[in-house]
Structure formats: C-alpha cells, structure tokens
Amino acid sequence: MNITGLLDALASHAQATGLIEVxxxxxxxxxxxxxxxxxxxxxxxxxxxxxxxxAETTGVVTFTLRFxxxxxxEPLDAIDPAIVQAVDAMMTAxxxxxxxxxxxxxxxxxxxxxxxxxxxxxxxxxxxKYFRIMDVTIPCIVNDLWSQAP
Length: 150
Hints:
Largest sheet: 6 strands, mixed
Oligomer: single chain
Strand content: 35-45%
C-alpha cells in the first residue's frame, strides 16, 4: 500500500482549496493556530469481500480529515459557515476526483462498503483550547491491496 501517496493526494486537495491555513498528515498534539487548520490521518483499514477475487483482496482505507477552528474567535456566527465551506469544498473535490488521479479504485461516495463520504461536527479540547471541529470520513477503495496465498 502506498500510504504516503494516498495521504499526499488527499492533503493536496485540502491545500488547493485556499480555505485552510495549515494542512498536516497527522493529528496535532498542540493547539492549532488561527483560521482553519486541517489534519489528515488513517482511521481504519479493512478488506472488501465484494470487490475481492480468488488471488487478490481489495481493501478500504478510511481516512479522517479534521477541520479545526478556535471556537472563541470573533465573530462567533462566522465559525460554522467557514468550516462548512471548507467541508463542502472537500466533498466537491473528492467527488470530482474520486479515483485520486487513478491511484485508487474510488472514494466510496455512497457507502457501497458500509461507510460513505461524510462529515460530522463536534467540539474538541486541544492543548487547553477549545475548537469547533468537523471530521470528514473518506473511505478509499483500493484494488488488489493484498495478495492471497494458496
């Protein structure tokens, strides 16, 4: 599995939106700065029985792309619209390039493997600061991820 290539492909879409101050390929240990920060990491890896054959196993590699915005920044009414705009830009980008330039079979847009491209909002304390967050779940289906032995 070319995990570095997948992380780079997904992160480049986030950076290309122009809506994000910083994009990392790890979960931050310290509080992010001002503006919207995005962090990307692998959340889950599993086989996909329906997409596998007798010699190769297809897999789903699910990533989390988390957007952070300081929940105390002013104006408060602008926090959610800014994060939702970034999430919408990502959903648009991943729908438009759902094979990541041919590096995967597809992003599971509609949940054929159980989990669809989706986003969920919440709050998180990072380094003593509270952030409004939205987690984007990005399930990537990868053909022939593992070879089966007889």
